[in-house]
Amino acid sequence: MEQDGVTDSPTDPMTEALLAVRDRRDRDAFARLFDHFAPRLKAMLLGSGLRDGSAEDIVQDVMLAVWHKAGQFDPHRAQAASWIYRIARNRKIDLARRKPLPLPETIEEPPDLEPDAEQILALRQEAALLREALTNLSSEQRTTIQKAFVEDLPYSQISQMTGLPLGTVKSRIRLGLDRLRHELRGLNR
């Protein structure tokens, strides 16, 4: 039957199901709509970049809107698929509008690496105390410690250079460091 060029009975089964929901609140017809459109809507939303569960939330919201707003559906203006996808598109836009815009990352300024006058003075005082403490060591301990910590030589190389056994080199360094610790113990208060 045609009336003014518009068909009374829609040929699309999903449009027929939506009309059954609209006219009779048919739950079986709604189940068919849900089974048909829910996975397609989810795929469309995931394909548009939605993650974090938002796609599932929008699908649920859209299908709930289909149930509640079926009375607004006019088959003469659109097929069921067009009407439902338009609802989904609008829900996605609403979600994007509600989300706050990401704030730009704050870039922290690196700390000033230049020592200030107080730090320079403190370092000079510590260096003077260390030089004085080194003069109180025996010359063997002082030479061994300087090679190990100033020249950054491994103990084995110091042993080869001096002709001393490795154990002697280690003992001199250990005893020298113990004496330095004792002399400088008040420095780190």
Automatic annotation (TrEMBL):
Gene Ontology BP, a term: DNA-templated transcription initiation
GO molecular function: DNA binding; sigma factor activity
Cell inner membrane among keywords: no
Domain RNA polymerase sigma-70 region: 33-99, 133-182
Source organism, top-level taxon: Bacteria
Gene3D superfamilies: 1.10.1740.10, Winged helix-like DNA-binding domain superfamily/Winged helix DNA-binding domain
Matching PROSITE patterns: SIGMA70_ECF
Keywords, alphabetical: DNA-binding, Sigma factor, Transcription, Transcription regulation
Keyword field contains Transcription: yes
PANTHER family in alphabetical order: RNA POLYMERASE ECF-TYPE SIGMA FACTO, RNA POLYMERASE SIGMA FACTOR SIGZ
Family to which this protein belongs: Belongs to the sigma-70 factor family. ECF subfamily.
Name of the protein in its database record: RNA polymerase sigma factor
